[in-house]
Write a structure and sequence with these properties.
The protein is an alpha+beta fold and about 290 residues long. The protein folds into three domains: about 1-75, Uridine Diphospho-n-acetylenolpyruvylglucosamine Reductase, domain 2 (2-Layer Sandwich), CATH 3.30.43; about 85-205, Uridine Diphospho-n-acetylenolpyruvylglucosamine Reductase, domain 3 (2-Layer Sandwich); about 215-290, Uridine Diphospho-n-acetylenolpyruvylglucosamine Reductase, domain 1 (Alpha-Beta Complex). Helices cover about 25% and strands about 30% of the residues. The chain binds flavin-adenine dinucleotide (FAD). The site of flavin-adenine dinucleotide has 32 residues, from strand 3, helix 3, strand 9, strand 15 and strand 17.
Length: about 290
């Protein structure tokens, strides 16, 4: 294990990343590291940096495609409970980046704090949601962030104010190695009203996406002024298949993987679709899914 020998209890070598992603596709990471808490995380990050080991961070894996070749570096998974703590302070909530977005929404709604409930149904963690500025037509997570604590690849903790961060459609300026936690500024509200709002958003969200047990991922970002799903439908790509991967016929902007699916199937399919949509509509689609 070389440079990481003193972290034996939290480091596993040559672990497949497929089980960590919704598509369940892909090869191994050289080191899978599951730290117990942030000081230990900072220390192991510094060791990786000093040893020249490339590093990446997993969230819930709902927006990741791992290539079969895997990742020849260290992959951090923040699943320890220490990374998922939530704490209310008046109208703000501090939340660890490893917490599930669904848990934060439930926490806020039951505490009578509104502002996140429209994000119900988006899978993944706070870290993943902040990195990609997750959102819906009702707004995105970047709108309610007050500050975030980040860990640099050198192992240093830095705090950034919301005013110094930039968020746009599925893009954030949070580009340090690790998002440790974030503080959200919320609106006080009545628990029953917020619960109702959350339930209504959940019903709408469920009507727009495949059932959760499926191995699914959002394929493309909505281009300015368009819905990716409509462009795919118009161009005849709903239900398009490559190997064991297809675009859903009912919800065309979702990739669905079946047994035997490979990252090559996904990449071939999305390349074919991007070229086809460009030829037929003149619009250039960009991937939503991140490829490792
Ligand atoms: C059924 C379904 C429905 C979806 N609906 C929506 C939707 O309505 N709106 C939407 O925006 N997206 C949607 N998505 C996409 C996806 O859920 C979001 O992009 C989600 O926010 C990704 O979070 P994650 O924790 O799974 O991140 P991952 O997929 O694990 O990672 C995504 C990126 O975030 C980075 N990351 C994760 N955690 C951290 C951290 N702590 N520090 C630094 N970087 C980190 C990773 O390195 C990677 O770059 C949907 C996906 C599915 C499968």
């Amino acid at each position: 294990m070389g440079a990481l020998s003193s972290y034996e209890g939290i480091v596993r070598e040559n672990q497949s990343l497929a089980p960590f992603t919704w598509l369940q596709i892909g090869g191994p990471t050289r080191y899978l590291i599951e730290p117990n808490e942030s000081r230990q995380l900072a220390s192991v990050v510094k060791s990786c940096f000093d040893a020249g080991i490339p590093m990446r961070v997993l969230g819930g894996g709902s927006n990741l495609l791992i290539r079969e070749s895997g990742f020849d570096g260290a992959t951090f998974s923040l699943t320890s409970p220490a990374f998922g703590q939530m704490r209310r302070m008046e109208n703000t909530v501090v939340c660890g980046a490893g917490a599930k977005l669904s848990h934060l929404i439930a926490f806020c709604v039951s505490a009578g704090l509104g502002g996140l409930e429209h994000l119900v149904g988006i899978p993944g963690t706070i870290g993943g949601a902040l990195r990609g500025n997750a959102g819906t037509d009702e707004g995105d997570i970047g709108h309610v962030i007050q500050s975030a604590r980040l860990l640099t690849k050198e192992g240093l903790v830095v705090e950034v104010k919301g005013a110094d961060l930039a968020f746009s459609h599925r893009v954030s300026s949070l580009d340090e190695l690790v998002i440790l936690d974030a503080t959200f500024e919320l609106e006080p509200g009545d628990v029953r009203g917020l619960t109702k709002r959350e339930q209504t958003f959940w019903i709408v969200k469920r009507s727009k996406q495949p059932n959760f047990p499926e191995r699914a991922a959002v394929a493309f970002v909505d281009p300015d002024g368009y819905k990716a799903s409509e462009l795919l439908q118009q161009s005849g790509f709903n239900g398009a298949i490559e190997g064991a991967v297809r675009l859903s016929s009912t919800y065309p902007n979702y990739l669905i993987a079946s047994d035997g699916a490979t990252s090559a199937d996904v990449l071939t399919l999305v390349e074919r679709v991007i070229a086809g949509v460009r030829d037929r509509t003149g619009v250039q689609l960009q991937l939503h899914l991140e490829i490792w």
